[in-house]
Amino acid sequence: MSTALDPVSRSTGAPGPTDAAVVPEGIAGAEWLARYRGAVMDTFGDPRRVLVRGEGVYVWDADGRRYTDLLAGIAVNSLGHAHPLLVAAVTGQLTTLGHVSNFFATPAQIALAERITALVPQVGDVPNRVFFANSGAEAIEAAFKIARRTGRPRIAAAAGSFHGRTMGALALTSKAAYREPFGQLPGPVDFVPYGDVAALDAAVTDETAAFVVEPVQGEAGVIPAPPGYLAAARRITAERGALLVVDEVQSGMGRTGEWLAHTATGIVPDVVTLAKGLGGGVPIGACLTTGAATTLLGRGQHGTTFGGNPVAAAAGLAVFAAIERDGLLDNVRSVGALLADGIRATGHPLVGEVRAAGLLIGFDLAQPVASAVAGAALAAGFVVNDVRPDAIRLAPPLVLTAAQAQDFLDALPGILDAADPAAGTGQGAA
Ligand SMILES: Cc1ncc(COP(=O)(O)O)c(C=O)c1O
To answer: How far is the CA of 75 from the centre of ligand 1 (A)?
Structure first.
């Protein structure tokens, strides 16, 4: 006999008569856009399309057009869209146990914490530990609070940095236009030129609680740290007793062809932040600590209702499993190289420097026409990102195949021509 708590009495998840009513269907993109403007706060500007469905590296808009998604929700959909492992893990967990609060633990939360702690070597006797959050900014907030617990007043960050939009994360984000509307932010924060060892050496003192740095500055246009920079940052912070916080929110979880972008440098940070690709599209963030940093936040000093939620944790476990099972780190390295080399090889007059770390790729444009390039790409059936007025970013799913990458490379000259003012056809097609 089954009871309400017995698995056999649960929903199978098959579409039922009420499912269609939950998310309206069959409405054209223009109508959705008008409704968006009426109901969603205008912090992002108009969306370029209303997307209704995704499968693998493809997404479809409300008008039925298909796009190859070379942005993956800004480096988030690491397994592409509707990946069977992710779908099974999330639906399986949701039909079993969807949320419990941090008064309780769950197997998914514990297993994911173990996977994340194993990404970085242990320092001394203290085991690595994880604090779960729900986004990149929240992972950074946890790191900021850990830094404050050193008792030191100052914090250092890099020019060009992006660490998120909450007040603490914003304080560490270098772009003045993002910070200035919001008055006094936690600090003082000393911004140092990215990649400049001498400047970092001068800026980090015994008043510095932490230096927070991205191994690849994604929002700045995909700028990898110069060789030796992270090692120097490790040495300088260790010498002065400051923490090294490595923000892997965008660069982590296989994006660069390593589990973490800093792994190959051999350094061990005090704190590593993760989010974006960790949940493959399900919101989750994580703040990982090593050594003495692990004990800086004590009981009651930090918390969150949703952090460690079992559905999000199951998603994270699925991402780990798929990357391992399908050899995605190798795929990232080979398809990333193919894409970056192919962009360089276009020889198009608009294309300037191409920078790549696995499947995190940025290329400069000779003119500030990135918005028009992104528009022309959409018109040609590709999602790319105008990360700066004069630079394009690609951060496709880690499952992108060589053939799918080649489709984009074949289309790229036409996309660039369509956006090139010198060709006389420049237009913001979106
Ligand atoms: C390096 C880095 N840190 C933090 C964040 C903030 O993450 P979220 O948007 O999930 O708050 C981002 C987002 O782009 C990021 O790239």
So the answer is: 10
Asked if residues 239 and 233 have their Cβ atoms less than 8 Å apart, the reply is no
Asked if residue 257 has its Cβ within 6 Å of ligand 1, the reply is: no
- Is the Cβ–Cβ distance between 81 and 56 less than 8 Å? yes
**Cβ of 137 less than 6 Å from ligand 1:** yes
User: How far is 76 from 248, CA to CA, in rounded Å?
Assistant: 12
64-122 residue pLDDT tens? 999 999 999 999 999 999 999 999 999 999 999 999 999 999 999 999 999 999 999 99
Evaluate whether 359 touches 349 at the Cβ level (below 8 Å): no
The pTM of this model reads 0.94
CA distances (Å), origin 286, targets 173, 251, 404: 19, 14, 31
The answer, yes or no, to whether any atom of ligand 1 lies below 6 A from the CB of 249, is yes
- Rounded to the nearest angstrom, the distance between the alpha carbon of 291 and the centre of ligand 1 is 25
Which residue in this structure is represented by tokens 């005090």?
270
Beta-sheet strands, E only, within 127-266: 129-133, 154-158, 189-192, 208-213, 216-217, 223-224, 243-247
Cβ of 136 below 6 Å from ligand 1? yes
